């Protein structure tokens, strides 16, 4: 067996261990949403930084977010993160007082600037005010254009009230909400209810835009695999 075949088998094996076989992948979702016309989106990363997430897990979560940014930057073509193409923002949610817009939509125009801004977000907080996080995303996304919330969470809301009605109100204005659910303590009822339905080619029914991982390490590994499927090798070498 040659090396690339071995690497491919290893990657497929790893994906199967960490994620359900019929599960959606990050590149599949981004390709489905942003491969169309008009292709350009407003994207807010909505990142859980509550107390159950440790320093290593926070690092993995941000690595996965960075690889997702990379995929967005290359969908539908290279350099798609740009002041007049995809625009990016980030909300961090946890306790009420640390749930914040860390950087607003379009604050940083280009990929590399967004990359640095995401990499330097500090972790803060104990509780999980999912609803306030969604409200801040809604404020950033406004009412027009193609709009996506990419939420990552390892748990369930325990402050600020039920986030599901807020999510439903946002979806009714056309916002797409995708949720990455990490670890064993997620409330999957809440997560599924917040997420948008997507029509995926090859499926006869719509699927919730939900990705489940057993750990932040598994999420990070899957995001890197997704990035490697999307990004031309030339660009892959440029940024570690
Ligand atoms: C962070 O959490 C992970 C997963 O639960 C665990 O394996 C790891 O040892 C923890 N790391 C630290 C620094 O506490
Ligand atoms: C999970 O979320 C649902 C819907 O928001 C809620 O009704 C339920 O009480 C939650 N369950 C747990 C164990 O937190």
TrEMBL record:
<dbReference type="Pfam" id="PF00092">
    <property type="entry name" value="VWA"/>
</dbReference>
<dbReference type="InterPro" id="IPR018247">
    <property type="entry name" value="EF_Hand_1_Ca_BS"/>
</dbReference>
<keyword id="KW-0732">Signal</keyword>
<feature type="domain" description="VWFA">
    <location>
        <begin position="42"/>
        <end position="196"/>
    </location>
</feature>
<feature type="signal peptide">
    <location>
        <begin position="1"/>
        <end position="23"/>
    </location>
</feature>
<protein>
    <submittedName>
        <fullName>Uncharacterized protein LOC106173189</fullName>
    </submittedName>
</protein>
<dbReference type="InterPro" id="IPR036465">
    <property type="entry name" value="vWFA_dom_sf"/>
</dbReference>
<dbReference type="InterPro" id="IPR002035">
    <property type="entry name" value="VWF_A"/>
</dbReference>
<dbReference type="InterPro" id="IPR050525">
    <property type="entry name" value="ECM_Assembly_Org"/>
</dbReference>
């Amino acid at each position: 067996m040659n090396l690339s075949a071995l690497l491919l088998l290893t990657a497929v094996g790893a994906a199967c261990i960490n994620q359900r076989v019929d599960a959606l992948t990050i590149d599949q979702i981004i390709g489905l949403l942003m491969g169309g016309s008009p292709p350009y989106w407003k994207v807010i990363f909505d990142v859980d930084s509550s107390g159950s997430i440790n320093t290593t897990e926070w690092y993995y979560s941000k690595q996965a977010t960075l690889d997702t940014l990379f995929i967005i930057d290359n969908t539908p073509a290279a350099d798609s993160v740009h002041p007049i193409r995809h625009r990016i923002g980030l909300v961090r949610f946890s306790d009420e007082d640390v749930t914040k817009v860390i950087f607003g939509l379009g604050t940083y125009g280009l990929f590399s600037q967004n990359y640095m801004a995401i990499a330097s977000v500090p972790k803060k907080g104990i509780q999980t005010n999912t609803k306030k996080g969604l409200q801040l995303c809604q404020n950033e996304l406004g009412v027009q254009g193609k709009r996506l919330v990419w939420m990552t969470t390892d748990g369930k809301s325990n402050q600020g009230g039920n986030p599901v009605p807020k999510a439903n109100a946002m979806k009714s204005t056309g916002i797409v909400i995708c949720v990455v659910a990490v670890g064993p303590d997620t409330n999957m009822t809440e997560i599924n209810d917040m997420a948008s339905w997507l029509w995926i080619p090859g499926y006869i029914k719509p699927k919730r835009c939900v990705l489940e991982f057993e750990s932040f390490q598994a999420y990070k590994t899957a995001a890197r695999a997704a990035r490697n499927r999307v990004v031309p090798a030339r660009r892959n070498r440029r940024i570690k």
